[in-house]
Design brief:
Layout: H1 6-13, H2 23-33, E1 41-48, E2 60-64, E3 75-78, H3 81-89, E4 94-96, H4 98-105, E5 113-117, H5 121-124, H6 128-131, E6 145-146, H7 151-159, E7 162-166, E8 172-179, H8 184-200, E9 211-218, E10 224-226, H9 228-234
Parallel strand pairs: 3-4, 3-5, 5-6
Antiparallel strand pairs: 1-8, 1-9, 2-7, 9-10
Helix pairs in contact: 2-8
Length: about 240
């Protein structure tokens, strides 16, 4: 059995597992108990009333967080010519074509997100088995396969804190929404931005309650359950 730290046990005392907190209360508790020796990531787990085995209920997408994730995102772009130049000017960390593909085939994966122009996907497909399992494969559904003229915006969005999300088998979405060092208001804004996008993507075939539950936690902290009715009000839905 894993040893539980004294700090974690103290944080656990702050949370009533029988209660659902308002978003404001939950974030306040999270910030008070995120006392590790590093800037902890803030994560959410959102349970949706969908069945991912049905294609029309597979929730997947991307959204920008108004205050970013608090993390430096290393963006790689597969592009050539003017598109490659635009990607570099937009702040991409790595830009190239065949040479980058060869480097990845050799085992290099030192980046966080990958973008590809449409004309490059024939080549990028050759390394799909390397990128796919790590969540790095460019995909048009989340805006990372783009027309050459849109590559700069894709880079800017990713560097600015856009996150990808996908519902898991149990109907749960896990996503990072910031850092504990952010203000409570910034964390709340980021969470409501994600929830608002999820509400927008609600499938017509989803029956019953759609937003069934949410918990917010920090890397080393405890999970705090959030009142979904308060969450929907905060998201303006």
């Amino acid at each position: 059995m894993a040893k539980v730290s004294k700090r974690y046990l103290e944080a656990r005392k702050r949370v009533d597992n029988t209660r659902k907190y308002s978003l404001e209360e939950a974030v306040a508790i999270l910030k008070d108990t995120a006392t590790a020796g590093f800037d902890e990531t803030v994560d959410v787990a959102i349970r949706l009333g969908v069945n991912p085995r049905h294609a029309d209920q597979m929730i997947r997408g991307a959204t920008g967080l108004p205050h970013g994730t608090g993390k430096t995102v290393r963006v790689l772009v597969f592009a050539q010519g003017d598109a490659a130049k635009a990607a570099q000017e937009a702040g991409a960390d790595f830009v190239g074509s065949d040479e980058l593909i060869a480097k990845i085939q050799g085992g290099w994966l030192d980046f966080d997100k990958a973008v590809a122009t449409r004309d490059m996907m024939g080549k990028v497909g050759r390394i799909g088995r390397l990128l796919g399992p790590r969540g790095l494969m460019p995909n048009p559904k989340v805006g990372t396969v783009v027309a050459p003229e849109h590559v700069a915006k894709a880079v800017t969005d990713l560097k600015g804190g856009r996150i990808d999300f996908r519902v898991e088998k149990a109907g749960i979405i896990h996503a990072p929404v910031g850092k504990a060092s952010m203000s409570a208001e910034q964390i709340q804004d980021n969470i409501t931005a994600l929830v608002s996008e999820l509400m927008r993507l609600k499938p017509a075939s989803a029956k019953g309650t759609y937003l069934r539950g949410m918990a917010v936690s920090s890397t080393m902290g405890v999970g705090v359950r959030v009142d979904t009715a308060d969450l929907i009000r905060a998201a303006g839905r």
